[in-house]
Each structure stands twice: as structure tokens, then as C-alpha cells.
């Protein structure tokens, strides 16, 4: 794609990077075939190619964002399916991230939109605030219909209430900073991202991860000062706040790297993993953090990636058929296709793919709150495709946002299929307790396997 940026415009590092990305695009349109919003809405401006044209025009002319541009950029899920499809290697993620930051700098949103975005940015990345918000949501859930009738903001308020869990889980000891020693000889040392929403919504995921890693000789540290990865505010264009969260995590992990050392930084929420692996790019112009951010990004591993480096051995029968949902952030954002399925198969599970597995479920961070109508259509499409998987006894995935979104869809359709994180299934198969979702669904405990006996010579 030909561009006409001036030398003065290209003095800005963000614009310079976006110009490189724009020049990579060849207008082929392959991206339209896999873009969820284009498939639903059929509008060229709601496809990656259409958004690229809008971004190019806005940036080249140094023009403040218009309501039309904002509408179509806001509708982008950042699912990054277009990046998987693109034959030219257009790095759409960095381009749309720049566009969102530019919109926040040049466009004044309506008051109700600003208020909601400010609320989400101040609550979701902080665990204690989120707990209080969920307690309030529990009181408000029976009145979601009334909230939904509020002009301008009603659909979004109802979406928040409908997505909130009916029961708040107890705070986990894993949430506190500390070291969880390996069982037996130590074979590795890793940091675990606690993050923000996941420990509140489902603390059992990180508990299972710690047990699983400890059982296989890996010491796990939860560093003091670690918190939200910054993804939630980053995707709302709030660049300064996102960088602040990133720097806090980098400082926490750098202390461990320079102390006893780390073999990896384990991420159990793939949406966070995509952002943390991009810290090196996000802070490339920050002289104090560029090198540290690059080092952290290189150490960041999705839990499935790291599990494949271990000598996993099943200790319990896993005769179960698992439908695997690949979150967009892992298959498109991180380019990890097979690792989660290989982990499950190695442990004895039968794994089946979901039809249209490349299409987003509609969660996408806070997209299901900010764009509830489109998110709802994608949720229904995803749940219908899950129901097409013959013989599935459980749905496995690696992203808390997808778990929350799909659970809402299951409730709407009366489905009883349990949703379990990959790490929980791996923990159970290697000797850990039954995942809570399976227990609540009435599953029977699987027998332990007989240990292999070596004949005496």
C-alpha cells in the first residue's frame, strides 16, 4: 500500500511503525474471509482491510478521529484472525493498537461512554475492587432487565450483570506473594502471573497450575508487586495506564530474574500472554525499560508451552472426550496452534476440535461489555458450534475471558457441559483433585493408574 506520510510525521515512533505496517498491506482481502465482524455485518469498513483504510486516512492527514472511524475501530475485537490469514504478514495488532491510542488522544467520546470506560479501567485491573464490584453485581443481577432499560447505557449495564458470576469464590492463598517449592529435586524455577480478573473469577486455575508444576519438580514464585498485565486498558487505547501496569510487572519479575533466576514466566490466561509477549515492542522507546521488557517478553510462556517441556506422566485414567476451544489470543495472537491439544493427548484425553474454531467467541477483553450485541451473536455462534462436537464431555480452554463468555452462552441454552481450564485437566490427570466444574457436574472420580513395576533381575 502506498503511503504519503511527511518526514515530520515519521519522526513519531508510533506513526513510523504504523507506516511500515500500512506499506505491507497489498489489498488482497484474504482477511475479510475470517474477520468475525465482517462475517456478521457484511460492511467493508468492519473488515481489517476497511479499518486499515480508515486508519491510514486518519494518520496521514493528522486528522482527529471522527465518530465514523471510532465506530468501526471500536467494533474490532482484536481477535487477530486476520493476522493468521494474511499472506503478506501485516501486523494488524500494532496498527489497531496505535489507532486506539490515537482515538483516545483526539476524540471526545459521549459522556456515558467515557464514564463506563473509566469505570472498567478503574475496577477490572484491581482484584479487591473487582471483588466489591461483583458483590454489587450479585445484588443487581435480579434487576438486570430494569438496568437494561436505562437510555444509552442500558445494554452495557445488563451485559455486565449477566456476565457476573452468581457466586463469588473465596480468596486463594496462591494470590499472596510467596514461593511454592518443588516436590523432590528442583528441575526449574518459574514465576506465575496472578493477574487481575482470573484469581477473582476462578482461583482454582492458578492453584491447579502450582500443584501441577510443583509435582513435576518446578518451583513457582508469585512475586511481590506483580498485578494486571495491562491488556484490558491497552485495548481501550489507554496507553499510559497500560505501560504503568507493564512496568510494575517488569520490575517484579526483574527482581526474580536477577535474584535466584527464572526459567520462564508462566501465563495461564492467554489474553495476558499475548500482551506480555509484546512488552518488548510496547516499551521499545523507553530507555529505562526497553531491554528489561524484551527479556521479560522472551521468558513469557503460555502454560501449555511450558508443560510440553516437562516429563508429564498420567497418574489417573483420563478416558474423557474433550472439546478444545482455542482462544483467539493463543492461536492468532501468539501463534500457538497445537501445544494445548498435545498436552491433553499426552495425558490420555481424546481431544476434538470445534467447527469454526478460528472465529472469536465474542469475549475479547471487555468487548462483550462495550459491544454486547455483536458479542452476543458471536457467543451464540460459538456455543452452537461447540454443540456440534459429537461425544464431548467437557470443554477445555486456556483463557478466563472465553470461559466466562461461553458459560453465559451455555446458561442461555440450558447446556450442562462443564468448562475447565487446560491446567486443571492436566493437574487432575497427574494426580491432583478433580476440577470444581467437573465435581459440580457430577462426574465420577477416575481411578489412579497402577505404578509401573520393574521386574527384578
Write up what this structure looks like:
The structure is a single chain. This protein is an alpha/beta fold. The C terminus is likely disordered. It has 25 helices and nine strands. The chain has four domains: 98 residues, Orthogonal Bundle (Fumarate Reductase Iron-sulfur Protein, Chain B, domain 2), CATH 1.10.1060; 52 residues, no CATH class; 133 residues, Rossmann fold (3-Layer(aba) Sandwich); 120 residues, 3-Layer(aba) Sandwich (Rossmann fold). The strands form two sheets. A five-stranded mixed β-sheet has the order 1-3-2-4-5. Helix 3 crosses helix 6 and helix 12 packs across helix 24. The longest helix has 20 residues. Helices cover 50% and strands 8% of the residues.
Amino acid at each position: 500500500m502506498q503511503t504519503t506520510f511527511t518526514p515530520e510525521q515519521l519522526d513519531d515512533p508510533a506513526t513510523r511503525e504504523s507506516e511500515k505496517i500500512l506499506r505491507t498491506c497489498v489489498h488482497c482481502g484474504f482477511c475479510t474471509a475470517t474477520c468475525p465482524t465482517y462475517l456478521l455485518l457484511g460492511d467493508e469498513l468492519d473488515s481489517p482491510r476497511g479499518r486499515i483504510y480508515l486508519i491510514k486516512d486518519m494518520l496521514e492527514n493528522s486528522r482527529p478521529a471522527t465518530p465514523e472511524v471510532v465506530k468501526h475501530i471500536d467494533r474490532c475485537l482484536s481477535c487477530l484472525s486476520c493476522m493468521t490469514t494474511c499472506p503478506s504478514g501485516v501486523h494488524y495488532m500494532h496498527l489497531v493498537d496505535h489507532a486506539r491510542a490515537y482515538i483516545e488522544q483526539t476524540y471526545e467520546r459521549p459522556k456515558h461512554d467515557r464514564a463506563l470506560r473509566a469505570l472498567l479501567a478503574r475496577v477490572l485491573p484491581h482484584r479487591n475492587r473487582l471483588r466489591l464490584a461483583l458483590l454489587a453485581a450479585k445484588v443487581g443481577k435480579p434487576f438486570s432487565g430494569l438496568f437494561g432499560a436505562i437510555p444509552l447505557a442500558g445494554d452495557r449495564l445488563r451485559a455486565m450483570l449477566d456476565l457476573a458470576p452468581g457466586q463469588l469464590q473465596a480468596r486463594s492463598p496462591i494470590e499472596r506473594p510467596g514461593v511454592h517449592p518443588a516436590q523432590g529435586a528442583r528441575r526449574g524455577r518459574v514465576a506465575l502471573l496472578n493477574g487481575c480478573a482470573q484469581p477473582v473469577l476462578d482461583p482454582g486455575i492458578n492453584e491447579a497450575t502450582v500443584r501441577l508444576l510443583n509435582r513435576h519438580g518446578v518451583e513457582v514464585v508469585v512475586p511481590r508487586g506483580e498485578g494486571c498485565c495491562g491488556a484490558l486498558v491497552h485495548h481501550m487505547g489507554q496507553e499510559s495506564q497500560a505501560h504503568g501496569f507493564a512496568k510494575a510487572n517488569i520490575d517484579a519479575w526483574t527482581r526474580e530474574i536477577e535474584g535466584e533466576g527464572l526459567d520462564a514466566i508462566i501465563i495461564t490466561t492467554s489474553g495476558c500472554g499475548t500482551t506480555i509477549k509484546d512488552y518488548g515492542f510496547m516499551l521499545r522507546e523507553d530507555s529505562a525499560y526497553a531491554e528489561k521488557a524484551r527479556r521479560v517478553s522472551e521468558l513469557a510462556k503460555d502454560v501449555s508451552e511450558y508443560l510440553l517441556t516437562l516429563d508429564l506422566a498420567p497418574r489417573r485414567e483420563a478416558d474423557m472426550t474433550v472439546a478444545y476451544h482455542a482462544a483467539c489470543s493463543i492461536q492468532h495472537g501468539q501463534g500457538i496452534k497445537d501445544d494445548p491439544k498435545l498436552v491433553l493427548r499426552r495425558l490420555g484425553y481424546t481431544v476434538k476440535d470445534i467447527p469454526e474454531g478460528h472465529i472469536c467467541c465474542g469475549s475479547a477483553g471487555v468487548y462483550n461489555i462495550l459491544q454486547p450485541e455483536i458479542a452476543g451473536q458471536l457467543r451464540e455462534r460459538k456455543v452452537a458450534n461447540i454443540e456440534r462436537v459429537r461425544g464431548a464431555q467437557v470443554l477445555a480452554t486456556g483463557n478466563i475471558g472465553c470461559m466466562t463468555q461461553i458459560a453465559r452462552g451455555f446458561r442461555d441454552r440450558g447446556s450442562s457441559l462443564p468448562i475447565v481450564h487446560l491446567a486443571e485437566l492436566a493437574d487432575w490427570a497427574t494426580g491432583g483433585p478433580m476440577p470444581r466444574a467437573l465435581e459440580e457436574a457430577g462426574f465420577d472420580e477416575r481411578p489412579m493408574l497402577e505404578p509401573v513395576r520393574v521386574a527384578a533381575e
